[in-house]
Amino acid sequence: MGALKENDLTTSGFCFACGARNIYGLRMRVGYEEGAAVCRLNLGRQYQGWDNIAHGGVVSTVLDEIMAYAVINYVGQGLTTRMEITYRKAVPLGAPLKAVGLVTGQRNRMATAEGKLYLAGDGALLAEATSRWIIKLGPDGKPLDGTPWLDAQR
User: Fold this and answer.
1) Quick one: how far is CA 98 from the chain centroid?
2) More confident residue, 65 or 108
């Protein structure tokens, strides 16, 4: 927790998941619907594991990022401390996908979230995750607003 207290959470736009300046990244664009973070995306061949299937690490990244957007928008700046993923079905490349992140709880400096990745066409659940977060507090002891961080990613 010392590093979180001593260091600002800043961005240069090179985040692998959502950074607009990272030509190798996913360039996720996240919006908000009904209290959840939502992203519609397609994963190209550069994110392949086995033939025509997205690499599990990339799927994990999508889920971590969608939960991050939910936590940062609805609670404040924070970092993932734990994440558990269940892969339900192979994630196809080139298919429209929908990622949804939701804050499920908050107590003091901790928050919990869940993320789900669906096949956009038929709504089939492909993967899901739960996570715990440590929240960065400001000098007043309250969570730091995540809005400036989110705005910098766009």
Assistant:
1) 12
2) 65
HSE at residue 154, side-chain half, CA atoms within 13 A, is 8
Q: Look-up: residue for tokens 């899901």?
A: 128
Q: Which of the 8 DSSP states describes residue 9?
A: -
Whole-number pLDDT of residue 151: 58
Residue 2 C-beta-side C-alpha neighbours within 13 Å: 0
In the chain, domain spans: 2-153
The domain covering 2-153 belongs, at the CATH homologous superfamily level, to Hotdog Thioesterase (3.10.129.10)
Please name the residue that has the structure tokens 């994963």: 43
The pLDDT tens digits for 97-122 are 999 999 999 998 999 999 999 999 99
Identity of the amino acid at 33? E
By the 8 A CB rule, do 55 and 26 touch?
no
